[in-house]
Amino acid sequence: MPAGNARWSFEEAFRLNKEIPIAPVHDPHIIPRAEHGISRRNISKPALRVLYGLHEAGFRSLLVGGAVRDLLLGRQPKDFDVATDATPEQVRKLFRNCRLIGRRFRLAHVMFGREIIEVATFRGTGEAGDGDRHLVDGRIVRDNIWGTIEEDARRRDFRVNALYYDIADFSVRDDVGGMQDLHDRVLRLIGDPETRYREDPVRMLRAARLSAKLGFAIDPQASAPFAELAPLLADAAPARLFDESLKLFMAGHALESFRSLRQHGLLAPLFPATARALEAGDAVLLDMIEQGMANTDARIAEDKPVTPAFLLAVLLWGDVRELAKALIADGLPPSLAWQRASHRTVTEQARHVAIPRRFSQMMEEIWILQSRFAHRTRKRVFRLLTHPRFRAAYDFLLLRQGEGEDVRELAAWWTSAQEHSESDLSQSLETVARPQGDAPATRRRRRGGRGRSRRKKAE
Ligand code: ATP
Ligand code: MG
Question: Of all atoms in ligand 1, which is nearest to the CA of residue 77?
Fold first, then answer.
C-alpha cells in the first residue's frame, strides 16, 4: 500500500468520538487459538517479523483491522497492519528498516522490499494517557494520544474491522462484537452512525466498498444516514477520494462497488456528472459503465494490467460526448471541440476526485481518439493503429457498441483492420480513399516489397 493511502486511513481512523463509551460495550471476548481459523502460514513473513520483534521486546503486539477480518473469512489479506503499545520512537529503535510518517497521526512503517508493515500505537481518549492532541473548529488536526487496546478498538469504523490477533498466545480479541458480524455477514458501525460519519464522511464510502468486497450487507442503521450525509463527502480532500476510488474500482470488485455506490446514493458526491446522466435514464451509458467495470474485474482476476484512466474515461463519457457535441454545434472544428471538451470534463471532475496528470492525460487521449476512428484514409488509419493509446481507445470503442449501428460498424471495421496484414489493409484503404480512379501509382510503396498486385484491389 502506498504511504499516502496509509496515512489517510489512519488520520481518519483515530478521530475522536466522544459518543463512544470508554467502558467496553461487551466484555472483551478472547477466542483461543484452537477456536478460530487463523494460521501463521497465511500471515506474510514481514508481518510475522514485526509481530515477533515487538513481542520479544516486551511490547503488546497484535495484527489488526482488515487483515484479521480477511484471515477469519479465509481470504488472503491485501496488507497487514500491526497495533502495539510501543510508541513510534520505540518501534523505530527496534527495526532498522523503519521510518516514521505523518506528523498529525504518527505511525511507523517497517519496510521489507516492496511490502510495508504499518505499525500504529494504540490511540486513546486523552483522559489518562500522555500525548498530543490538537483541535481546530472541532476537527482534530493532530491526534497522537496513546491509549489502551480497548480504546483503540473503539476508534475503528466497523465492528468487523476491530478484531485483533495477538501474537503472544495466537488468540483473537473481540471487544465490540466483530465476530458476531462476521458470522451474520453484516457491516455494523461502532457507536452512533451519524456521529461517526460526521467525524469522517469517507466511512460511508468504506461501507459501500467493504460490502461489495466481502459480499456483506450494510446494517440498516449504518446505511440510514447516507441520504442526509452523503453531501458531506463534498468536503473530503479530492486526493483522498482518488485513493478511495482506486480501492473501489481497482481491487477486483469494481462492478459490485459501483452498484453499491449507486444503490446508496453515494455516486453523486464522487462523480456528479455520471450520477446526473444515469438519473436522467441513460441506459446505454449505464450498460457501458457496467461492462467496463466487469471487464476490469476480469482482467484483475487474470492478473492482466489495468489502468484507472480507462474506467474514469468510461464513467465520464456521457459528459464529454455531450460537451463535444455542443461545441461542434457552436461551430468549433471537431478536433478542437473534442480537445476542449476532454480538458473541461477532467478539470471539472478533478474538483471532486483528484486525477493525477498521467491518468487525466490518458483519459483525454482515449476520448479524442474516439473522434478519429471515423477517418479511414490510409495515412490516418496507420497513424491511429500505431498510436500508443490505440489499444485502450479501441477497447473503449468496443464498449460503445450499444450507441448504435454506426458505432457497431466502426468497431467491426477496426477489428478487422487489426486482423489484416499491413499490405492488405493498405491496399484496401487505397480503394476506400481513392474510389474515383485517382492515380494510386504515384504513392510511395512501403519498404520490403510489400506492394502486391493491384489485381487484389478489385476483389
Ligand atoms: P482493505 O481490505 O481494503 O485493506 P481495511 O479495513 O484493511 O480494508 P484499511 O484502509 O487498510 O482498510 O484500514 C485498516 C484498518 O484501519 C481498518 O480495518 C479499520 O480498523 C481502520 N480504519 C481505516 N480507515 C478508517 C476510518 N476512516 N475510520 C475508522 N477506522 C478506520
Ligand atoms: Mg487493510
Answer: 2
pTM of the full predicted structure? 0.85
Q: How confident is the model at residue 194 (pLDDT cuts 50, 70, 90)?
A: very high
Does 42 lie in the same domain as 152?
yes
Question: In whole angstroms, what separates CA 420 from the centre of its chain?
Answer: 37
Q: Are 430 and 378 in contact (CB under 8 A)?
A: yes
Give residue 212's pLDDT band: very low, low, confident or very high (50, 70, 90).
very high
pLDDT in tens, 164-176: 999 999 999 999 9
Q: What is the rounded radius of gyration, in angstroms, for the C-alpha atoms of the chain?
A: 27
Residue 361 maps to a domain: yes
Cβ of 79 closer than 6 Å to ligand 1, yes or no, is: yes
Ligand 1 nearest atom to the CA of residue 65, by list position: 18
Does 280 lie in the same domain as 175?
Answer: no
Model confidence pLDDT, tens digit, residues 60-109: 999 999 999 999 999 999 999 999 999 999 999 999 999 999 877 889 99
Which of 129, 155, 184 finishes a domain? 184
Rounded to the nearest angstrom, the distance between the alpha carbon of 387 and the centre of ligand 1 is: 40
d(CA 266, CA 259): 10
Domain CATH number, residue 136: 3.30.460.10
Active site residues: 79, 81, 157
| Residues 179, 285 share a domain | no
As given in the structure block, the three cell numbers for residue 303 are 492478473
Q: Which residue has the cell 467495470?
A: 293
> Which residue puts its alpha carbon closest to atom 12 of ligand 1?
66
Structural domain count of the chain? 2
